[in-house]
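Example 9 (inverse folding). The structure is encoded as follows.
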């Protein structure tokens, strides 16, 4: 079986048919609600659509999943079918044992096994697929039996909590200044640094940490949203995120003045050179871009030409794909409206930010010495900055309310009073709102990291550890002597 994805923007360039025009196909896709990224499954020999699976792709599209998620679902089904083909089976005729064999292959036997966390997402896709196929009568029953508590053979063996990884102040500065910013550990400039835009990386990390937003939220900010637009007063910025937020849930985010200052430094010193170099290339692509003619900062709207038609959008409702192609007429010609730009002149994508992060990690390890802060065992993630924001803010708010009380007293009063106190002053719920969590239950996961119980640990294990008491060798020799009757 072969896999393809819907991409309406390429129809005019690549569709060559006397039967139907590119415009007619695009109109049909729009009428049927088929989004870009929807998976299309084709028979390997005939290249005809596999009806049941293509219907599943269309069903995913009507669920309003974003383009990246649609592709991930399609790839998960495609990988499963590829493996089952080796067993002379496929996803439509697979038995429970076939799927269990695939699970074992993915989590144990393949060259680089995936984690149970990653398998959890893949098993969800397969469970969703078979539920759809049974509901639509393509299959008479699911291939997987349902056991106690609704679990089946594909359910992950380990149910893990949130993977909360946060940075200390020293670790963050080492990441930002040395990993991303091109400095040496002694704060001197590294003349051999090969990073192309150190100020971009520093600005990205400062905004991520200062606002506590997810990667898709801070990396897609527009210049008017961050306050770097003619006529805006500057200082701290506040804007609404929605289309780029998780689950499309809108909320207001706050970017502190220092983080905006870091972004302004990139905007003044590095960004103009990137924009100037890419202006001619963007001019050639103008027909495929959303060229903004009017920016209404107060109303939060932009108006311009998209696909030859005048369109107007609310900024919060603009998804990442639209933001990536949004440009305006700047000093050097067409210029991206997003804050962050890469060599092509447009907003960097997922892979670009991933490469910045990986290069920073490699550099951090290469320059590490005795004075370097202890680096995490695993490569850092952009999301770690969000976790750091949550823990720092939660700890700060709790300490403000605790005052000078001893730790143990404060903790007892906090858990007795804070969680039942007024919702406006509850530190946990304040952080939950700032992070945009759907439920405070998600924020509860952070509580285990805020209390420093080191003194209690010391008291509990006093005398167990160290050299003040008998060593294990002494205890063992005494036990052996006793067993031999004292000899």
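The amino acid assigned to each position is listed next.
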């Amino acid at each position: 079986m072969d896999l393809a994805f819907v991409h309406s923007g390429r129809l005019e360039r690549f569709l060559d048919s006397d039967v139907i025009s590119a415009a007619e196909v695009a109109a049909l896709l729009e009428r049927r609600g088929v989004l870009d990224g929807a998976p299309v499954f084709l028979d390997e020999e005939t290249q005809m659509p596999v009806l049941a699976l293509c219907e599943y792709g269309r069903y995913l599209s009507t669920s309003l999943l974003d383009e990246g998620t649609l592709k991930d679902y399609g790839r998960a089904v495609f990988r499963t079918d590829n493996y089952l083909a080796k067993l002379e089976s496929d996803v439509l005729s697979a038995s429970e044992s076939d799927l269990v064999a695939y699970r074992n292959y993915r989590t144990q036997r393949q060259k680089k096994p995936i984690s149970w966390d990653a398998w959890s997402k893949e098993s969800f896709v397969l469970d969703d697929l078979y539920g759809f196929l049974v509901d639509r009568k393509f299959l008479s029953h699911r291939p997987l039996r349902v056991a106690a508590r609704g679990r089946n053979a594909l359910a992950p063996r380990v149910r893990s909590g949130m993977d909360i990884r946060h940075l200390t102040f020293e670790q963050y500065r080492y990441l930002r200044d040395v990993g991303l910013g091109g400095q040496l550990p002694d704060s001197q400039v590294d003349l051999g640094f090969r990073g192309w835009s150190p100020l971009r990386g520093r600005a990205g990390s400062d905004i991520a940490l200062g606002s506590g937003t997810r990667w898709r939220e801070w990396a897609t900010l527009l210049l008017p949203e961050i306050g770097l637009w003619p006529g805006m007063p500057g200082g701290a910025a506040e804007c609404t995120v929605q289309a780029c937020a998780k689950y499309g849930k809108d909320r207001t985010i706050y970017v502190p003045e220092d983080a905006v200052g870091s972004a302004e430094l990139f905007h003044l010193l590095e960004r103009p050179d990137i924009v100037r170099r890419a202006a001619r290339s963007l001019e050639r692509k103008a027909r495929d871009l959303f060229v903004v003619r009017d920016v209404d900062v107060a109303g939060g709207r932009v108006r311009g030409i998209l696909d030859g038609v005048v369109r107007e959008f609310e900024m919060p409702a603009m998804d990442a794909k639209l933001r990536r192609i949004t440009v305006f007429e700047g000093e050097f010609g067409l210029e991206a409206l997003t804050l962050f730009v890469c060599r092509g002149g447009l907003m960097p994508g997922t892979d670009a930010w991933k490469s910045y992060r990986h290069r920073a990690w490699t550099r951090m390890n290469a320059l590490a010495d005795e004075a370097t802060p202890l680096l995490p065992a695993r490569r850092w993630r952009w999301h770690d900055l969000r976790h750091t924001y949550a823990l720092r803010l939660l700890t700060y708010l709790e300490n403000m309310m605790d005052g000078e009380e001893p730790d143990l007293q404060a903790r007892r009063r906090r858990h007795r009073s804070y969680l039942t106190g007024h919702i406006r002053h509850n530190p946990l719920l304040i952080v939950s709102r700032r992070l945009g969590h759907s439920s405070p239950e998600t924020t509860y996961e952070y509580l285990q990291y805020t209390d420093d119980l080191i003194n209690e640990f010391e008291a509990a294990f006093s005398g167990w550890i160290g050299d003040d008491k008998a060593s294990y060798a002494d205890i063992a020799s005494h036990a052996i002597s006793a067993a031999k009757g004292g000899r």
